[in-house]
Amino acid sequence: MMPALTGQRREVLVVGVGDMKASADPSQVIVTHALGSCLGIVLYDRALPAAGMLHAMLPEAAALPDRARQNPLMFVDTGLPALFREMYALGASKARIELSVVGGACMGADPTTDWFQIGRQNIAALAQLLSRNGVRVRGHLIAGRAPRNVSVRVADGVVRVTTGAIQTPLEEADGAASVRTTLRAPPLMDRLDRRSLKP
């Protein structure tokens, strides 16, 4: 039986940039801060329960192979499979895992001069992975121009998103298509298709 949340002291696991954490300890909360163009990707298996979070900075490892070898968690296309493997090691099942995503903002003073569009590229990389791997998307709060913090409680999977002192609800999602539709992101190159999220 899941322990009651009321009055329970929770240990906080902080996820840095290019980092991930996963836990099956119901007393823990996983959190990451200052998501601008980066993505905070949350996985949750409520049957265990278990939760994991990735703070990915860039879309494709192939663009910076030396940095990718040093830290594959910096990139959406290599970090997300690593997070899935961490969840599988805790006993999670891909069929039960739900994904939430926060971030991908445009952090430039003027969106029309944000030539690199890192936030958009990160979301496009994620959308490609999700559509090819049949992952259940639970909710998202992506794009925009504000930095965000996100946390997930391992005990019940509650995801909280804050911008400054304001808490913002996730938008409910009906699948990977909703992530792509929100951004109207173009498909990426086929090399992303080869990155499988299977065990």
Give a brief outline of the structure.
The protein is of the alpha+beta class and 199 residues long. 22% of the residues lie in helices and 31% in strands. About 11% of the residues have low confidence.
Structural descriptors:
6-stranded mixed β-sheet, 199 residues, 60s Ribosomal Protein L30, Chain: A, 5-stranded mixed β-sheet, globular, alpha+beta, 31% strand
Distance between the termini: 28 Å
Number of domains: 1
Radius of gyration based on Cα positions: 16 Å
Secondary structure: number of strands: 11
Class from secondary-structure proportions: alpha+beta
Helix content: 10-25%
Largest sheet: 6 strands, mixed
CATH class: Alpha Beta
The CATH architecture: 2-Layer Sandwich
Which percent band covers the strand fraction? 25-35%
The strand order across the widest sheet is 2-5-4-6-7-11
Please name the CATH topology. 60s Ribosomal Protein L30, Chain: A
Q: Indicate the low-confidence ranges by residue numbers.
A: 174-178, 180-195
Describe the 3D structure:
- The protein is α+β, with helices and mostly antiparallel strands and 199 residues long.
- It has one domain (11-188): 60s Ribosomal Protein L30, Chain: A (2-Layer Sandwich).
- Helix content is 22%, strand content 31%.
- It has 4 helices and 11 strands; from the N terminus they run βββββααβαβββββα.
- The chain has helices at 65-70, 76-89, 118-133, 176-183, and strands spanning 11-15, 19-23, 28-35, 39-45, 50-56, 98-103, 136-142, 148-153, 159-163, 166-168, 171-172.
- It has a 6-stranded mixed sheet with strand order 2-5-4-6-7-11, with helices on one face.
- α3 (118-133) runs antiparallel to α4 (176-183).
- The longest helix is centred in the middle third of the chain and has 16 residues, at 118-133.
- The protein is globular, with a radius of gyration of 16 Å.
- The model is unreliable at 174-178 and 180-195 (pLDDT under 50).
